[in-house]
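#struct-help
A.M.: can someone run this one for me? Single chain, 102 residues.
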Amino acid sequence: MKKLSGNDLLSLKRLDLSLQKDVRRFAAEMTDGFPRLHYLVNNAGMVLHTEKGFGEKNVQREDTEDGLELCMASNFFGQTLLVDLLLSSLKEGAKESKEPVR
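D.P.: on it. Structure tokens below:
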């Protein structure tokens, strides 16, 4: 990615949005390394299905170690928690930016 973009400041971080402890770890790493954030893109989602296809009644419920249904944990709870934990860094980024923070 660095080579393709020509930007040596890019970094790769791993995050499992379905696990609250991983979201908290990731947010702590981000706020420690980047006290001011200018952009946050929440663009992750998942759907569980069986061989019969999407929408069939035989889809097995899968829970996370936090006791949350896996899709809801990944698609909603994890992203909401991440935004909440990074909000202060995003606000700091907004203070110094002449552009709208997104």
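A.M.: thanks! The chain has a mean pLDDT of 84.
D.P.: also worth noting: Helices lie at 2-5, 20-33, 70-96.
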